Amino acid sequence: MPAAAELRVRYAETDQMGIVYHANYIVWMEIGRVEACRCHGVSYAEMEADGFFLAVLGVEGNYHAPARYDDIVRIETMVSSLQSRMMEFSYAMYRASNNELLFTGKTKHMFLNEERRPTRLSEKYRAVLAAAYAADHPA
Amino acid sequence: MPAAAELRVRYAETDQMGIVYHANYIVWMEIGRVEACRCHGVSYAEMEADGFFLAVLGVEGNYHAPARYDDIVRIETMVSSLQSRMMEFSYAMYRASNNELLFTGKTKHMFLNEERRPTRLSEKYRAVLAAAYAADHPA
Amino acid sequence: MPAAAELRVRYAETDQMGIVYHANYIVWMEIGRVEACRCHGVSYAEMEADGFFLAVLGVEGNYHAPARYDDIVRIETMVSSLQSRMMEFSYAMYRASNNELLFTGKTKHMFLNEERRPTRLSEKYRAVLAAAYAADHPA
Amino acid sequence: MPAAAELRVRYAETDQMGIVYHANYIVWMEIGRVEACRCHGVSYAEMEADGFFLAVLGVEGNYHAPARYDDIVRIETMVSSLQSRMMEFSYAMYRASNNELLFTGKTKHMFLNEERRPTRLSEKYRAVLAAAYAADHPA
Fold this sequence. Notes:
Four copies of one chain form a homotetramer.
Chain A: E1 3-8, H1 24-39, H2 44-49, E2 53-63, E3 72-82, E4 86-95, E5 100-112, H3 123-136
């Protein structure tokens, strides 16, 4: 079961086509994964304070229907892959009012240490993300 | 030969990791394709005024090295596919000072009319984009 | 009593100084006034659908302490002036965790019609905003 | 004579009113002052590397006419006040195609050191900013 977060579309996020500008969904994926981590017990702010950074290696997104100003968007986020130095999240976004699918996407990340070099997570964070992965992939 | 555009990284585009926030490259791809169109003789602003909209269907991006505040970034853009109702652009971004590759990406688009329904481009625009495609794909 | 809204600081909103980039507070004022209107019974999205636009004539802001990534920010918004064709909102923003004052600001607006010309609000909207003004300014 | 910078309006900077979203002018003021510093011989990136930060204490802006997508905007920036620990810039923005005034604004700054505490600039930077102030305020 994916972790869910909600946000309301800001006027600043629209463009002159009258819909949400496409790059904002990339920002929204960040909100999705941070809330997914939080809901599994990991604060990303704390993770950075502990010296672990989640660098973005890749993003991809597909646009199914446009979000509009003032819509409430529900973001469902899953841990789709977890390796020793990398992980992936996948996302689906819906218009909350009618459950219409708006966007699907993925992001790929590498764990970095304070010197911004590839590293392994400490056991504390690793265990939580592994539990999140397991929750999203029942046997 | 791809069309090239340059921009200077804004302070607003950095994040607390001390590098450019990853969603900005998605905005920069837009700048790349608009300048690519302009350099082939198509103003996107005019194209919208003529009732053609280039809706974004998909984006993907890979991050090779981080851009930093005040860097000059060179964006090279190519028309990588041109069909009757859709097209794709591909992009490579470099730090101008040392030609380091920062980012590669693609965007996929559908042509929409003023009612925001799929449409074919008028001959005027089609011819120019076809020439751009041909220039990027010499026989 | 001012209307209150809350938001959580996004990673995208930080800059390389390690704090929230200052222009984001201007976006947050927009969120504050939209939520203030909503909490007084006016949906700004509906207001635009009814042909009334709230153009921004002026903004000002003073920065008291920096908001940081993942902070919850509380925005208190008041209708500080209401005239026939113009209105002003004033704002105070606090870090929710410790009630520290972060930012105070004002925005000045003109009512525009669908042709984007100055207009008076319809009685429906006027009455609600007048009630909001009165609530914020008890005799 | 104020220092001038130019930028082209990005699609991302428009909103559903069909004009530039108002918070972007605050970002553009940052571009204006950085280019003004550069044109007087100060790189703000270097200044930060040397341990001096220009924190924003206050902003204000007045909107005279809307910038639109693809417009070229000319930003004229002046040093309007220079004190031992603080300074102010003032800005005027014009549509380059017809010299129409779009926006006027001011920002107020405090110099901070690496510990983010108020400080005085080193003589190197002070002299350049004083020259910029003098150039903008002939006797």
